[in-house]
Amino acid sequence: METVMEMPATGYAPLAVDPAWVRVCRLDDLADSWGEAALVKGQQLALFRVGRGDVFAVSQADPATRAHVMSRGMVGSRGRTHTIASPLHKEVYSLATGECFGRPELHLGTYPVRVVDGVVEVSV
After folding, report:
1. For residues 93 and 100, what is the distance between their CA atoms, to the nearest angstrom?
2. Residue 48 above 60 pLDDT?
3. 8, 30, 69, 104: most buried, per Cβ within 10 A?
4. Cα–Cα distance for residue pair 107/111, rounded to 1 Å
5. What is this structure's pTM?
6. How many domains does the chain have?
């Protein structure tokens, strides 16, 4: 497992108990409504924490351009749906489903994510 985020020397185990899940970072390492890029099992991901505990993992690749920039997107919402706007062309995607609101032919990849004992884990 690799990640672009600095990991503290204590309180972090590199392997998840369940091999389907990979520990990526502590929940407290993610700032509210700010993206972080991570490389997990060779997949470039963008992680987002929204509010106190909603965490999302999506593909780092912008579906419109394939540039790896989604962690720099703008977090927002449409009603109760948490969203991310691409930093390049501003297409807006659901963080939960990857649905693109303006261009239905585009879809942002999403990954299962969970928080266990304060540690964010992703299944890729």
Report:
1. 4
2. yes
3. 30
4. 13
5. 0.84
6. 1
